[in-house]
Amino acid sequence: MHDLAGKVAVVTGAASGIGRAIAEAYAKAGARVAVADIDAGKASDAASAMGHGAIGLAMDVTDEAQVEAGFARVARELGPVDILVSNAGIQIISPIVDFTYADWRRMLAIHLDGAFLTTRAAMRQMVEARRGGSIILMGSAHSHVASKFKAPYVTAKHGLLGLARVIAKEGAADGIRANVICPGFVRTPLVEKQIPEQARELGISEDAVVRDVMLRDTVDGEFTTLEDIADTALFLAGFGSNALTGQSLLVSHGWHME
Question: Name one GO biological process term (predicted).
């Protein structure tokens, strides 16, 4: 399952953090990887560091034309897509009563519109190539639970579960699997930014945010690591049948259990 030789993968939000860790794991497993990110320079730098025929793509996942152009370039330069990881995302912390409509719409566009647009582009290539594929949506433990001050994030991450289940049903006849990875807190720049924001909103120290908010319900008080998520993404990419599709895998040190 860890041999991706001959496979073509697109990973969004892959210039840093979780996306980059997954892209690097895929490249090491032999895949030809398209590193897609809104920051073209960072995407190119990350791809250059990976080797294995990796390319960098400038892609705003909320822009239909950019998504279509990016996937067309992947098909030309690497071949039709076998694996998609829809990972691009942001976080904005605010109570509902103070949340601006513009920020609400921006959050949903990146997480949900981006997942739809990249999934549609990937599925079109997978169906035409007739060799199946794996679509992985990056959810969160917040796909199953809720926290204060994260209304659009929680809404979007819940929505990804429904999207994956529809993809699984529609894609089955063409051998296309769809699953959602649901990490707990991973100490990426996105999470680092949340610590002082939550401390301010909750009126507690940053240490208390980590201890009593982020890691309180884990079984061991530990952050999920980039390697944990990359290993899960590698497993899902290489799984060979529809036996595992339409599912969400919680990788959260037991923060949420199902």
Answer: monocarboxylic acid metabolic process
Mark whether 26 is an active-site residue: no
pTM for the predicted model, two decimal places: 0.94
Q: Is 227 left (phi over 0), alpha (psi -120 to 50) or beta?
A: alpha
The encoded tokens of residue 20 equal: 């980059």
Domain of 64 in residue numbering reads as 8-184+225-251
- Kindly state the average pLDDT of the residues 36-63: 96
What pLDDT is attached to residue 1? Answer: 59
Domain contains 256: no
Q: Quote the tokens at residue 210.
A: 């980590």
Catalytic residue (one of 26, 71, 153, 255): 153
Q: Is residue 258 part of a domain?
A: no
Same domain, 115 and 243: yes
pLDDT, tens only, 16-29: 999 999 999 999 99
